[in-house]
Amino acid sequence: MSETNTCSTPHSGSDRVNKSYFDKSRKSDYLVLVPDMLPIHFKLIMAIYEQYGYRMELLQTSTRSVIDEGLKNVHNDTCYPALLVIGQFLDALKSGKYDPEHTALLISQTGGGCRASNYIHLLRKALSSTFPQVPVLSLNFSGLEKDASIEVSPTIALKLIYAVLYGDMLMLLYNQCKPYEITENSTDELLARWQHRLGKMFHTKRDYMSTVKIYRAMLKDFAALPRTKEKKPKVGIVGEIYVKYSPLANNHLNEFLLSEGCEPNVPGLLDFVMYCASDAINDKKLYDTKTSKTLLYGIGYDVLYKFQKQQIKIINEQGVFQPPHDFEHLRACADKYIHQGVKMGEGWLITAEMAALAETGTKNIICTQPFGCLPNHIVAKGSARVIKQAYPDANIVAIDYDPGATKVNQENRIKLMLANAVL
Amino acid sequence: MGNIYDLGIDVGSTTVKTVIVSDGEFVYNRYERHFSRVRETVAEQLKLIRKSYPDDKFRIAITGSAGLGIAEACGIPFVQEVFSAFVAVNKTYPDADVVIELGGEDAKIIFLTDGVEQRMNGSCAGGTGAFIDQMAGLLGVTPDDMNDLALKAEKTYPIASRCGVFAKSDIQPLLNQGAKKEDISASIFQAVVDQTVSGLAQGRKIEGKVLFLGGPLTYLSALRETFKKTLSLADDKAVLPERSSCYIAYGAALHAHDLSDGMTIDEALDKITHAKTNDNIVVGRRLFESQEDYAEFIGRHKKSDLKYEDIVTYEGDAYLGIDAGSTTTKLVLITPEGRLLYQHYCSNQGQPLDIIASKLKDIYRLAGKKLNIRASAVTGYGEELIKAGLGVDYGIVETVAHYKAAAYFCPDVDFIIDIGGQDIKCFKIKNNAIDSIMLNEACSSGCGSFIQTFAGAMGYDIANFAQLGLFAKAPVELGSRCTVFMNSSVKQAQKDGATVEDISAGLSASIIKNAVYKVIRAKSIDELGQNIVVQGGTFLNDAVLRSFEQELGRNVIRPAIAGLMGALGCALFAKEKTAGSTGKSALISKEELEEFTYSSRALQCGGCGAHCNLTVIRFNDGHRFISGNRCEKGAGIDVSGRTENMIEYKYNYIKGLADIKLRMKPIAKVGLPLCLSYYDLMPFFAQLFTDLGFELVFSEESTRDTYYKGQQTIPSDTVCYPAKLAHGHIESLLERGADFIFYPCMSYNIDEGGSDNHYNCPVVAYYPELLKANNDKLTEKNFISPYIDLNNKGHVAKAMARALKDYGITAKQVMALLNRAYSAQIDFRRDVKGKAQEIIREARRKGQKIIVLAGRPYHIDPEINHGIHKLIASLGFAVITEDSVAGLVDTPALDVLNQWTYHSRLYRAAKYVCSQEDMQLVQLVSFGCGIDAVTTDEVRAILEEEGKLYTQLKIDEITNLGAAKIRLRSLAAALEEKDAQRSAKRA
Question: Does ipTM surpass 0.90 in this model?
Answer without folding.
Answer: yes
